[in-house]
Design goal:
The protein has 469 residues and is α/β, with parallel strands linked by helices. The chain contains 14 helices and 18 strands. The chain is globular and about 60 Å long. One of its GO terms (cellular component) is SCF ubiquitin ligase complex.
């Protein structure tokens, strides 16, 4: 190779540059909801640099198709570049162009209306190389015929919702995909007589018509992540027996289990039993639990896994009524030396926000998780004790630059109503001072607002889930 070749004349270098160029921006839609919009202005200028840059960057420009975010892109342009698509995303109410001439999709999220069903069926049939497919039926009366899925020999992730897969349809599909499937998300009754040796992730519900998780996990010897929505059905004796069967199955058949996520209305004492009974053979790295109240039995069951936990999520959806309960929650990091991601939400916390901050300040010095990288807290609100004169928007607070070394990330932040007006600089500084001792902390999500210690978005850590629940 000539010594005079410039780095930016090399395709492999241009590709690396292309992945850092912005293509999408976050904008606020109606009702305060944020949406991602396709605005590749900078990218477009780079396409004009040279023929090499144009040919190299074009596949990156069109790699991701989002029907909502690309609604302003001319249909002719989309159709002519559809063969570049690798990810295809269409939700209900979104109308893209007609049939794309695409056979090289890797990922597809399809939630079509009835009039777009045929289009999505054809899309799945035309793309045998799909590795991830999330497909929602327009209604629960439509049958999902095996012919649309059994040819997907490379499929690793399958999520299906509202389809009629009775009369052996799903068993036929599962048998065809058993060799490649690693992640499965479903919610209906089925019998699984075959083994699923590659399955590592299962998400399901235990509604009356859902699979029996105790039986299902016995088919998954390499299961690493289990997400269950546990609701209360039958007598307490039946619940005890069900949980015993689930925990026995996990201990006997799933020695590689690393993550347990428990949703649903089942009483938290039963969830505590399931969490506690997973300690015999399973080494949990991640635990997420939805609870109705903060109780010592549940806290004790979590502490049993404290030495190995790297991710912990606690979601209270009914109410936290006293400082004692909050104190119990914020004592958990004291027990978890390996913790890297901590998320605690209390949507109906009745304690004043200053109380929450005071408890964090009083416990954080004893937290053993000095390697914590992400702290996600959604408890109370940041406006209490502030006069109207003290209130500012986040944009105003950060208009002159970072505050105590932290940067505001508006595009990653969630908005709800007039949340912007519930902040003041003094309160925000108190939050930053409270976490100052956590030297590895790089992402702080407080009451829906995302803040980072990095000015460079490319080096900021956004690879953690922003919402565990």
């Amino acid at each position: 190779m000539s010594l005079h070749v410039r780095p930016l004349d090399l395709p492999e270098i241009v590709v690396r540059v292309g992945h850092f160029l912005p293509l999408w921006t976050r904008e606020r839609a109606s009702g305060g909801r944020q949406k991602t919009v396709f605005k590749p202005k900078t990218f477009h200028y780079c396409l004009l640099v040279s023929k090499l840059w144009h040919q190299t960057l074009l596949p990156i420009l069109w790699a991701f198709y989002d029907a909502e975010g690309m609604c302003l892109v001319p249909e002719k342009t989309l159709l002519s570049n559809g063969h570049y698509f690798r990810t295809f995303y269409m939700q209900s109410g979104q109308y893209g162009p007609g049939h794309f001439q695409n056979t090289r999709l890797v990922n597809a999220y399809l939630s079509p209306d009835v009039d777009k069903l045929v289009q999505t069926q054809q899309l799945v049939k035309d793309n045998p190389g799909l590795k991830s497919l999330e497909w929602n039926s327009p209604n629960g009366d439509l049958c999902l015929e095996p012919e649309y899925l059994i040819h997907l020999s490379q499929l690793e992730h399958l999520a299906l919702s509202r389809w009629d897969v009775s009369e052996g349809r799903f068993e036929t599909i599962l048998e065809a995909l058993a060799g490649s499937l690693k992640r499965l998300e479903i919610g209906w009754s089925m019998n699984v007589p075959l083994m699923l040796p590659g399955l590592e992730f299962y998400r399901g519900k235990n509604a009356p018509n859902a699979p029996d998780p105790a039986k299902f996990v016995r088919s998954c010897p390499n299961l690493k992540r289990l997400e269950l929505s546990l609701d209360m059905y039958g007598s307490n004796n039946l619940v005890d027996n069900e949980l015993a069967r689930i925990s026995d199955s996990l201990q006997e058949c799933c020695p590689k289990l690393q993550a347990l996520v428990l949703h649903g209305s089942m009483d938290q004492d039963y969830k505590a039993k399931l969490i506690r009974n997973c300690t015999t053979t399973n080494i949990l790295l991640e635990l997420v639990v939805e609870l109705s109240a903060v109780g010592e039995e549940l806290i004790d069951s979590i502490v049993r896994h404290a030495p190995t936990l790297e991710t912990l999520g606690i979601h209270n959806k009914t109410g936290i009524n006293d400082n004692a309960s909050l104190y119990l929650l914020f004592q958990l990091p004291v027990q978890c030396p390996q913790l890297k991601h901590l998320s605690i939400t209390g949507w109906y916390c009745h304690e004043r926000t200053q109380s929450v901050l005071d408890i964090i300040k009083s416990t954080i010095s004893s937290w053993r998780c000095r390697e914590l990288e992400v702290l996600d807290l959604d408890i109370g609100g940041p406006s209490e004790g502030c006069s109207w004169d003290d209130r500012s928007t986040m944009d105003e607070i950060f208009s002159k630059g970072p505050v105590l070394g932290w940067y505001y990330r508006p595009q990653e932040s969630a908005y709800s109503g007039d949340i912007d007006f519930f902040w003041n600089t003094g309160y925000l500084e108190s939050v930053f001072e409270a976490v100052m001792g956590l030297e590895r902390l790089c992402v702080l999500k407080w009451y829906g607002v995302v803040l980072t210690r990095s000015v460079d978005r490319a080096s900021a850590r956004f690879d953690y889930p922003s919402m565990l629940f």
